[in-house]
Amino acid sequence: MEDIDIEKLQRKLEITGVAVDLYVEQDGEFTLKQISKEIDMSVGEIFDYFPNKESILDFFYTSLLIRYRLMLDEIDDFNSYSLSEKLSNFVYASFDLMAEKQVFVEQTFKSRVRCGYGRKEFTKKVEKMLASFFYEDTRISTASSMLLNDLFFQLLTKKYLYLVSYWINDDSEGKERSMELTDKVTAFIQEVMYNSIADKGFDLMKFLLSNTKLNCSGSFWDKISSKIEIR
Fold this sequence. Notes:
By secondary structure, the protein is mainly α. The chain has helices at residues 6-25, 32-39, 43-47, 53-72, 83-99, 102-114, 121-135, 142-145, 150-169, 176-194, 197-211, 219-225.
């Protein structure tokens, strides 16, 4: 992970936390002067960290990924996790971090993240995060690894955004349905990526091609067919 200036991050999180609270309390209206009063920081100092109010609100979502990366540093055996475990861990952590400011997320996720897909730093960082899980996993089959490209991770990010949207609107107790859906989605993705049937098929084709003359005699196939009992 790239080096992070912890002191700078803490200041940005402090500014963002106040801005988000003011946004919720005042129906989306707040000023930098109000923020400065809450955190004993001049407006000029706030500009040292953010160019405008909108960038402060956008940073809330970006900061979730930064905080998650810091959390991963505390998990010694994370690299040993299976693909579904890594994906589930990321989604669950996202739910927990967003729950800290759930009202703000409910009010802004669609407009600032989901419908701003491709333009927001948050979604680009999600793509990068997901890509690291796949590229670092040696259990992914050779055939499945051919799926790994920018388009694949863009589509996967859209699925992630859908899970967050589902969680936001989930009225089940403890948001159990969101957890169940996450488990099913991540298990399915792992099943697809770890499945070695295609690899075995390629190996078989290579063997057959290297041991069969490319003619119509069918000598090699005749030998195979003679061993097959048709029922």
